[in-house]
Amino acid sequence: MADIVFKDNWDETRQRYDAWLHGQKTDRPLMSLRAVRPEDTRMVKSMPELPYDDLKDRYTNVDKHFARSMNRFGVTTFLAESYPQIGAFLGAGSMALYLGSDPVFADDTIWFTESIDDYSGLEFTYDPENKWWKFQLELLKKQAASAAGTDIIVGIPDIVENIDILSAMRGPSQCCYDIYDYPDEVKKALAQLTDLYQIYYDAIYDIVKKPDGSSSYGPYNVYGSGKSAKIQCDFSALISPEHFDEFVMPGLTKQCDGLDNIIFHLDGEECIVHLDSLLSLSRLGAIQWTPPPGPSDIKAANDKWFDLYKKVRKAGKGLWLSLAEYGPEGSIEAADKIIREIGPGGLYFQFPDMDIKLAQSLMLRAERDWKA
Q1: For the chain, what is the domain count?
Q2: Host domain of residue 162
Q3: Which string of b and e fits 185-195 if b means at least 16 CB within 10 Å?
Q4: For residue range 267-290, what is the model confidence (pLDDT) as tens digits?
């Protein structure tokens, strides 16, 4: 494939991400902003899009994914800090597959079968011959080969870590009981999972990293020099701050030591009680906040969350917010409201796709009015 470049400000983009993720000042908020152009302005020839055979094919057919991505990228202008990315994802928490669970392909996600009955003889160890791990690597290598000759990034898949993996394999309710009934066994399992995370991550990073060593973690577009990742603990909604500090924080701390560019996915109001502990992670660069599901009046620009935002910014961490659900015009108003309340410093906004004229006017507004 001849050299195809979809984005013309890669160096500037990487520098902004590096600064944002390491507590340094940027000239304006970071923005994921993609403009959709008319079909007659297509950059590359349209590729045929074959139908998927079934749900598994929809998630794992690299060639069909790539054709759809190229067609979308061909009529997209990647403005600000957006960039072309593809991925070979086997669900949020694919480490569970590498360790013995099986996938359950659904319309909107991939679930994992529970595969741990008890802790008797339980050892999480690296198995290079695990069929799903080998399949994951094959998919990523094929994606990387497809993207050769372009500036498309192959994103690191959503491996997930820590007690979220144990919960997927054991069941969340049972995992809650385990913390009380088998605390030592749980801690041993979590220590093994933390060590394995780095093994899996490093193998994937070596396949998808760019020539300069930069990388992107697929979910939430975490990009920068070196090893990039989103970390999380959705299970934390079910446990106290004391149990979070005892069982989860040791693994998160060690995990951060093996990464360079890190955001934490804070999912829902029940998890806010752990924010102080998360902000103590010195290597953590930013908090990605996901409001609870519901009507738009409780989404990112609601006054209810401003104290949370101020606390994150006071701790010197960046703040990642999606404004996609507000729609193109509404997302700009939402960003304006947030900036008026907490200032533009340290912010990252994910905007919905919009037409080129509105996107260009948003860029001018950001550079003129949202200076950090």
Answers
A1: 2
A2: 38-74+84-219
A3: ebeebbebbbb
A4: 999 999 999 999 999 999 999 999
Q: Is residue 250 part of a domain?
A: no
Q: Of the candidates 194, 192, 191, which has an alpha carbon nearest to the alpha carbon of residue 125?
A: 192
pLDDT tens readout for residues 130-162:
999 999 999 999 999 999 999 999 999 999 999
Q: Which two three-digit tokens encode residue 157?
A: 């898949």
Same domain, 67 and 23: no
Q: 44 with 180, same domain?
A: yes
- The tokens for 335 are 């960003």
Residues 316 and 208 in one domain: no
Report yes or no on whether pTM surpasses 0.90: yes
Neighbours of 277 (CB within 10 A): 16
CA-to-CA dists, residue 101 to 73, 151, 159, 171, angstroms: 34, 34, 13, 12
Residues 6+ positions from 310 with CB-CB distance below 8 Å: 342
Give the length of the chain. Answer: 372
350 in a domain, yes or no? yes
Amino acid at the residue 66:
F
